TrEMBL record:
This is Oxidoreductase domain protein. One of its GO terms (molecular function) is oxidoreductase activity. The lineage of its organism: Bacteria, Bacillati, Actinomycetota, Actinomycetes, Kitasatosporales. It comes from the Bacteria. PANTHER family: BCDNA.GH03377. Residues 9-122 form the Gfo/Idh/MocA-like oxidoreductase N-terminal domain.
Amino acid sequence: MAQHTARHRIGILGAGNIFGRYAEGLRTFPELDVIRVADVDPARAERAAAEYAIPAWGGPDELLEDDAVEIVINITPPAFHAKTVIAALEAGKHVYVEKPLAATVEEAREVLDAAERSGKLLGSAPDTFLGSAVQTARHAIDTGLIGEPVGATAFVRSSRSETWHPDPRAFYGRAAGPCWTWAPTTWPRSSTASARSGRCPPPPASARRPARSPAPSGWSTR
C-alpha cells in the first residue's frame, strides 16, 4: 500500500467550544500538522495550544501572516465567516470553514469571488452528504435500485443550543439563529412564523444569560 509522505500545515482560527473536536479529529490524519492556533483572546489561544501541543499561538493576524500555514480551519462564529474567510484567502491560504459559508447570499458570492481570485481551495461544512449513508442512498436512487422516488420525509431532532454550549448567544444572532439552516424543527410554531416573516424568533431567556468567559469584540470564537 502506498504511503502518504506529503504533509500539510494547518492553522486553526478560533479556540472556542468546538476547537477540541477539530484538534482531536485532525490528529487522526497523518498527512496533517496543526502548527498554529489563533484567537482574538490570546490567553484562550495559548491554553488551546498547550492542551493539544500546538507549537505556535497568537491572534488572527499572526496566523494569516505565518507563511508556514498552508490551510486555515475557520471555526469562528457564523457572523464572522465571510470576513475571516476572505482575509485568509487574500493571505494566500486554502480555507475550510464551519457552516454557514456566509451570513447572506451576497456575502457568499463575495467569498466565492475571493476564492476564485486567489486561486486557493475553499471548502465548507457540512460535508455530511459525502458520508456513506447519504452516498449509499444517492447510489440507490441513481441506479434505480428503489425505483423512481415520488416523495420523501425527513425528521430532524435537536436540543436547544443553550443546553450544550457554554455561551449560546451567537446561535441566536446574525447568520445563525434558532432556525439555523433547517427551518421548523425545535421551535415548530415560532420557526414557522419566522419563515413566513423572514426573521428568526427571539432566544429564550436561558440563552440570554451572561457568558462564562466574555470574549472580546471582533473575531470572536465559535
